[in-house]
Design brief:
Radius of gyration: 20 Å
Distance between the termini: 54 Å
Number of helices: 7
Helix content: 40-55%
Largest sheet: none
Number of strands: 0
Order of helices and strands: HHHHHHH
Length: 193
């Protein structure tokens, strides 16, 4: 018997989200979209398209060429149609952002994610790291919840090649990982709260 792939049911973003709830939503949405073979090309890291306009043909996408098996090749028009369907799906589950911002003005998934992050106030910027000092135990919050918030904040601020944040004027070549020293600093900050 063949196994049936099922994605968890996708939910809409609310007016108030955390880094963790946004990332859960984003990962579930990517998984759901990846189940449709027409969308997988657009989910590749770094894949970009052009804004929809009267002067841009097919969002800058090109017909598939020789390396693709003839029966699987798609025209630029077919790709642009699939892209707009995918962007429409993202917009359906993100009612807090104007639909045209996602469907017509976006140029990549990273562009969409950063737009959403900006809306919630956790846009990836070097200055965002300054908010770390303000993280403290909130009334009614358990210490373990605070620890998880601190950890999520630090992990969210690790450098990535696509985050456009430089270190010594260089964009990193690979995702930064949480080092043991940084983990110790997280614990120290948590204990001081």
């Amino acid at each position: 018997m063949a196994s049936l792939q099922r994605a968890p049911k996708q939910w809409c973003l609310c007016k108030s989200e955390t880094i963790t709830s946004f990332e859960s939503w984003r990962q579930n949405l990517i998984y759901t979209l990846s189940l449709d073979e027409y969308f997988t090309e657009f989910l590749r890291e770094g894949f970009q398209w052009k804004k929809k306009s009267k002067t841009t043909t097919h969002r800058g996408l090109a017909d598939d060429g020789e390396p693709i098996v003839k029966t699987k090749r798609r025209t630029a028009q077919q790709k642009a149609s699939a892209l707009e369907l995918m962007l429409g799906q993202i917009a359906n589950f993100c009612p807090i952002i104007a639909r045209n911002t996602i469907v017509q003005k976006s140029t990549s998934l990273d562009c969409i994610w950063q737009t959403i992050r900006l809306h919630y106030g956790f846009h990836s910027t070097g200055a965002h790291l300054l908010d770390f000092a303000a993280i403290q135990l909130e009334p009614g919050e358990k210490p373990e919840d605070l620890f998880q918030r601190i950890t999520a904040f630090v992990e969210d601020n690790l450098l990535r090649p696509n985050c456009n944040i430089t270190h010594h004027n260089e964009i990193p070549n690979e995702d930064e990982e949480l080092s043991p020293s940084l983990e110790n600093y997280i614990v120290l900050h948590w204990l001081q709260q």
